Amino acid sequence: MRIIGTGSALPKKVVTNAMLSEFLDTSDEWIIPRTGIRSRHVITDERVEDLGAEAARKALEQAGMQPGDIDFFICSNVATEYVTPGMSCIISAKIGLSCPCIDINCACPGFIYAMDIAETYYQAGKVHNVLIVCAEEPSRMTSWDDRSTCVLFGDGAGAAVLTEGNNIRGIELHSQPDPDKIWQTKTLVPTPFVTKEEKDVPLQMKGREVFKFAVSASTRDVQSLLKKVGIEQSQVAYYMVHQANLRIIDAIKQYLGESDEKFPTNIADHGNSSSASCPILLDECNRKGLFNKGDILVFSAFGAGLLSAVAVVEW
Ligand code: UT7
Fold first, then answer.
1. Is the CB of 143 under 6 A from ligand 1?
2. Which of 33, 179, 261, 309 could form a disulfide with 112 if both were Cys (CB 3.0 to 4.6 A apart)?
């Protein structure tokens, strides 16, 4: 397939590190050197599905497509107020789609997992035009008393329209099952029969271990896929890395022996927006005119699961 439209949408409320330090034992001096984050957009009165719909409309407009042109819709989302229907159905209703749609919960690499599904359906001859929306509100998953998690995240949505083409040069998906490294639980409706213990627990994360996983998985994924598809690092124009922590991105850059210019970032203003991170970055770079036709983009993302994924895409 080929990416022909991108879009993104962010909540209006910007929370700076200084604002966090008004109610948390934290500071700009701690957050910036350890994460690179200065501020993040956080949901107030918006609904995450409305952000997803706005990002989708922008991507469709840029692609020059109407909702009726889309024949498959994939939505990536980790947490929403709805248990059912899926976020893909809710966004479909908002933007006027009536094609088949599915939801995936692959955490931060969700955009790359979605591209893989789109490409595989396309190769199977089942679809022509696919919409991907990643809509996330991780600010509603963390405890706002827990300075080690809540400072890291921001909300938002990113979208892409893919059509027929030969520009996805390769994708690799990886899983290293270890659900204790990043997790959150929410209780279901009680019944007269349930006897097991259930609890609502906000997002828990073993930060240092996730950090190490992120750097080693991303470096391995990128080198492995580039080798498989026969592309040299020198041919790569940009690495579109999941915006989790600037130190993670710097470490990946160092291990790959690459230059700063090849790693666009927006983490300073957004924090970690889970699966929305890669498509928001893609949309911002695209709308700034950063990419030239034929540029090789390498997407790499990692997160809860533990899952990671990498894609090589020709722009
Ligand atoms: O999409 C993937 C999602 N997850 C990630 O990407 C997270 C990956 N991990 C990380 O980015 C880093 O591990 C963190 C930024 C989360 C933490 O950085 P760290 O250098 O690994 O710090 P730490 O967790 O080892 O904490 C060091 C100290 C602790 O204090 P003590 O025990 O040494 O007294 C923490 O309590 O820093 C303290 N601390 C804070 N202090 C001020 C933790 N969070 C904060 C905070 N402000 N926000």
1. no
2. 309
- Concatenating the DSSP letter of every residue in 207-239 gives HHHHHHHHHHHHHHHHHHHHHHHT--GGGEEEE
Q: Could you give the maximum distance between any two Cα atoms of the chain, in Å?
A: 63
- From first to last of its 315 residues, what are the pLDDT tens digits of the chain? 999 999 999 999 999 999 999 999 999 999 999 999 999 999 999 999 999 999 999 999 999 999 999 999 999 999 999 999 999 999 999 999 999 999 999 999 999 999 999 999 999 999 999 999 999 999 999 999 999 999 999 999 999 999 999 999 999 999 999 999 999 999 999 999 999 999 999 999 999 999 999 999 999 999 999 999 999 999 999 999 999 999 999 999 999 999 999 999 999 999 999 999 999 999 999 999 999 999 999 999 999 999 999 999 999
pTM of the full structure: 0.97
| Shared-domain flag, residues 131 and 280 | no
Q: Is 306 in the pocket of ligand 1 (CB under 6 A)?
A: no
- Same domain (yes/no): 21, 138: yes
Nearest CA to ligand 1 atom 35: 148
Asked, for residue 69, whether it belongs to a domain, the answer is: yes
Q: Does residue 34 have its Cβ closer than 6 Å to ligand 1?
A: yes
Active-site positions read 108, 242, 272
Cβ 211 under 6 angstroms from ligand 1: yes
Residue nearest to atom 43 of ligand 1 (CA): 148
The residues facing 239 across adjacent strands are 298
| Residue 194 maps to a domain | no
Residue nearest (by alpha carbon) to ligand 1 atom 26: 148
Which helix (H) or strand (E) segment holds residue 72: the answer is strand 72-76
